[in-house]
Amino acid sequence: MVEKGFKKIEDYEKWNEILILTRFLLYLSFENLISLENNLPDIFHFIINTHWVNSFYLRSWLLSLAINILHSLSTKLPPKMEKDYEILVKLLKEISDIRFRMLFTGTGVKQNEILTNKNQNLIPHNLSEIPIVSTEKITQLFNQVLKCYKNDTEIYNKWQNKWIQTTTKCTFDNSIIQCRSFVILGVITDEEVKTELIKRFFHILAVYWGIWTLQTKQIETCALQY
Question: What is the pTM for the complete model shown?
């Protein structure tokens, strides 16, 4: 998503375009105008990899986008099974709760409270960096959303494969989002991991520690047997 060589996403030359397009996505997220059946994995990927930047408004937009997406899924593209639908509604309530607002924005203040209040002191100007553990929790919730559709094999496999494919590319791309991509990939491959992916993990670890030897290769082969 972001080219190499940048220390912060905000330094990316097309950052202003990202902000504008994020707002545009938020408008389209009502009533599933965003075509979730085709784009859900990409939207999840975008939200998770930009929710931690130093912009209160962007963080608020992303949270609103996530809430609208889950609402659209529950009304326009509900799961086939009643029990899965109930889980989806529960997840919608969870992400609308103040605890998730804290994960995204670091404050319990809602964006509309700031827009309707002339007191600019409500705006947190010095946002703390969102820890990776928050990224993990958000990813876990999104992953639970996907699992609500496991009884619809075609759409579930389509979404899961696209999400894993996109995240894997970022994980091994040595970009600014690589660190969080490792965490995200670990969450969304919680049920099945391809052998090739495990080999790539071993390769990165070995290269990082400078120990790519015959012994490392033997350890990798042994580990893959279990």
Answer: 0.80
